[in-house]
Amino acid sequence: MNKKKEIVMSGIRPTGFLHLGNYFGAIRNYVKMQEEYDCYFMVADLHSLTTHPDTKQLKDNVHRVLAENIACGLNPDKVALYCQSQVKETSELYLYLNMLAYTGELEKTVTFKDKVRQSPDNINAGLLTYPVLMAADILLHRAKFVPVGKDQEQHLEMARTYVNRFNHRYGEVFPEPFAFNYNQELVKVPSLDGTGKMSKSENQMATLFLADEDDMIRKKVMKTKTDEGPKEMNSPKPGYIENVFSLMKLVSTEEVISKFEADYNNCTIRYGDMKKQLAEDMVQFIAPVRIKIKEILDDEKYLKEVMEKGAAKAGVSAKATMQLVREAIGFNY
């Protein structure tokens, strides 16, 4: 008899292009998880509406996110890869959880305060209740584990609060969800300009996207910040030089990395050669993914089948949960 797998749930907003940081920071873990857990990975199109995007682009953006994730190794036959708006129970649970969410708490969330500063003319109720919708996404599948970054940990804490309020008021239905990343230190991929990490929205020339063409990859890598090289043997590396080595450790062979480490320690390193090597290794890593993304995007019939299959899988889980929720609340007359 097979042991029941723990449930993992995560959402991906259909905004911007996926980049190297997304891959090493999240998607690589998702690919591992699909072998060991019961996984629900969702394209968060409802969430995207809070920032009022041009919805004429929404279909293309959703398709691209699906294609990127599949090209990176997510298998639609192993996971439920679905679109948030296609599982209608999400909206019903969101409504019930809103009755357990208090305005004062929501107004204090860091992400809401950031959005108010960034877009003072767009303080809509969806933006305020974003953590409630995120909780609904997770609780709909009674997920135990949620792969999240630091910026989402407060939202996950709020989801646990709603679980406890619901269970206390109506009876035990939901388990508490917890952050999960294979007990590993999260990989932070440094930006090419030596400041911060790669980003979808900030300096795009400092970020390597999975859709970047070979020449663009080379151009970006060759602009990576370096200096004249160390003057003393075995010198500590400045942060921006450490970044170049960090990037190399993601895609280059151990032999290549060892060679440039030795050159640095011997004060013979030629950063031009190092960047050329890094650029070619990045091309070799990204190009097959980019080609696969394009092949998937060109097959709209396949993408439609993926979404239908994913929504059906997610729907089974969602319906079972909502039956328990309605009975617990007392909607059984």
Structure explained in plain terms:
- With 333 residues, the protein is mainly alpha-helical.
- It is built from 14 helices and five strands.
- The protein has helices at residues 20-36, 45-48, 58-71, 89-98, 103-107, 110-118, 125-128, 130-139, 153-170, 214-222, 239-251, 254-265, 271-297, 300-329, and strands spanning 7-12, 38-43, 80-83, 145-146, 178-179.
- A three-stranded parallel beta sheet has the order 1-2-3, sandwiched between helices. A two-stranded parallel sheet has the order 4-5.
- Helix 3 (58-71) crosses helix 13, helix 4 (89-98) packs across helix 8 and helix 8 (130-139) packs across helix 9 (153-170).
Classify the helix fraction into a percent range: 40-55%
According to DSSP, the number of beta strands is: 5
Distance between the termini: 38 Å
Structural class: mainly alpha
Rg = 22 Å
Query: Mean pLDDT across all residues, rounded?
Result: 92
Strand content: 5-15%
**What is the strand arrangement across the widest sheet?**
1-2-3
Number of helices, counting only DSSP H or I runs of 4 residues or more: 14
Indicate the low-confidence ranges by residue numbers. none
Anisotropy-based shape:
elongated
The H-and-E topology, N to C, reads as EHEHHEHHHHHEHEHHHHH
Q: Biggest β-sheet: count, sense, barrel?
A: 3 strands, parallel
Question: Would you summarize the structure shown here?
Answer:
By secondary structure, this protein is mainly alpha-helical.
